[in-house]
Amino acid sequence: MSSTHRTAAGTPAEPSRRRVLGGIATTAVAVVGWNTVSQTWATAAEAAGNSDVVPVPGLLGTLETTPGVVDAFANDFGHLFDGAASKPWAVLRPGGTSDIVKIVEYARANNIKVAVNGQGGTGNDIESHSVYGQARVPGGISIDAKGMSNIISIGNDTAVVEAGVTWGQLTDATLKVGKTPPALPDYLYISVGGTISIGGIGGTVQRYGLLCDTVQSIDIVTGDGKLVTASATQRTELFNAALSGGGQVGIIVRATVKLIPAPKRAVIFSLFYSTVEQYLADSEKVLADGRFQVHAGEMLRTPDNSGWRYKLEVGATYNTTPPNRTKLLCDLKDVRADAVIEDVSFRDYMFRLDAYEAVLKEGGHWYTPKPWLSMFLPASKTKAFMKRVEQELDDSSLGGGFLLFYPFHTSKIKRPLAMMPNESVAYLFDLLRFPNPGEPNIQGMIDQNRRLYDIAVASGAKRYLVGSIPMTGADWQKHFGTRWSGFVNAKRKFDPNNIFTPGQGFFA
User: Fold this and answer.
1) What's the rounded Cα separation, in Å, for the pair 65 and 189?
2) pTM of the entire structure?
3) Tens of pLDDT along 323-348?
4) Half-sphere exposure of residue 10: CA atoms within 13 angstroms, side-chain side
5) Percent helix, strand and coil across the chain, each rounded to 5?
């Protein structure tokens, strides 16, 4: 495998760029510095003879302040915090890692907040894929992750990528050489850096853990402007605080991700259950014996829209000889009558949401607010909680969305800030609402999220860092529990001026 070059001091070297952007620019008038008194950006005319203006360092890329640019970076996929109050003062489109180092140093010295904006999506629909303002940085600097979107190398068992590379880009590149990341999100058009900073989950979590658990090392710019490499054995405290830490201790600029041989095809079984009891029994049975390589599921409406049912979605991968379907299903509940079984290419299954994205866009659901609720439930309390959910939700609760719901072994989760229930098996509960256009009760859905969250937490659940749940500082302390003090210490050590990712609200 070709490796990333290092400097003599052991820090990551600046990667070569396909293009170098020139100077500090806007479409209209260039900014040349930050006015420390008025807390605004200053043009050359405003800066002339003004000792309050601190000059911006020279950059390979651009620092943009025009309304059209900052307006775009004020919004995210959730559309719950759009508007003037969420606008950054400027957007950095980095021409190299050195730009990020310089901007972090500048921000620290001048008390300016900084956050990376993942800029995921397809076509012209490119935006932050946070849903509750997690990537917003009002009055600060938003870093466009698209300026860090090169695949550095692909080897036998790892790939080195810049943080703005999407999982879709990486998957297509690795499939060309017969490899794949072992863990992938369901929606592939989101950035590697953003995903691993909050954990990342998909249908192989029962085998490989969260996406961040497949990361072997990161290159990260800390709050004192240092570019360093961290791993499970090198700068371990920083590594553990950056992965699933919500962007609080640095800006991930590069990651080394594990690769495994990619199968060519997969048989996907969609098995339907009329009761949660039947679903839980079979889900935990196949989890325990590991007969499937992919294991997901969801709660969904019945065909006549009169209530709820459950779908176990499991996959057996292969290269040349298809698996024995009868053997795989023989001891499960009597669900084969209405089972849907498909034999598809591995790539087609990984990119299966492409068609669904098109449907959501056509119906207008893609552009509505996203009051999502994402949690990890302890298995022993899951049945009672889902019975409550069946009563709480109705046929309008999902809109065009879905409710992912499936088990995994918590022992597979290695990063300490990816908080899990204190049981050997947990269930992902991922209420991904895409409300119908014009839905009048978005606030009611958010209020419902908080109510369900409180019920779940009282039973030992933990939230996933995505989602739309109003949280206080005390809520976050309770969430991180015994790991809170270590998280606080890491924040003080690696971001002493508290400039990173204020939208998470951990250390407000």
Assistant:
1) 26
2) 0.92
3) 999 999 999 987 666 899 999 999 99
4) 5
5) 30, 25, 45
